[in-house]
Amino acid sequence: MSRYIFSPKARDDLQEIWCYIAMDNPVAADRLEEDIYAACEKLATQPHLGHSRPDLTSEPILFWKVRSVYLVIYLKKTQPLNIIRILHGARNVSVELD
Description:
Blueprint: E1 4-6, H1 8-22, H2 26-45, E2 61-66, E3 70-75, E4 81-88, H3 93-96
C-alpha cells in the first residue's frame, strides 16, 4: 500500500502540469513528475517537513516546495498521507484552495 494518496484534484493538477510542460519538452515533464513523486514519498515518511501558510488558508494543511516553484499541499495527520493539491506557486493558491 502506498504511503500517500492523491486527491482527485491533485491527480488533475499533476496531469495538467505534465501536459503543459510536455507540449514543449516531454522529457522535462517526466523529470518534474518524478521530482513531485519523490517529494511525496519524502513527505510520507517525514510529514512534519512542510510549513503552514495562515496567510493563504486556515485549513490544517501544509505546503512543500518542489523545484522552488511547485507546491505539494497535503494534510499532515493522515495515513496514508493525503496530497490534496499540486500547484504552481504563481497561481492564486488561496483561490485554488477554496
